[in-house]
Amino acid sequence: MPERIRNEWVKKLGKREDWSTFGNEWKKLPEDGRDEESSCYGQLYSLRRAAPRPTSTVFWIAAASRKAVVG
Question: 37, 53, 58, 71: least CB-packed within 10 angstroms?
């Protein structure tokens, strides 16, 4: 049950793009407690923490990730 609540919470944080709080909560969520949508936000979080990229690449990745989440 706690994993399910935390999973919903990290999805809300990802949707709000509150990446600092997301990162802290994401680390606490076990892999088996993550669903497809929260995992997508986790991927986006990892990409944002990676080495700086040209702005156009970052926008493309963010747009692609949001389309995958929203459907």
Answer: 71
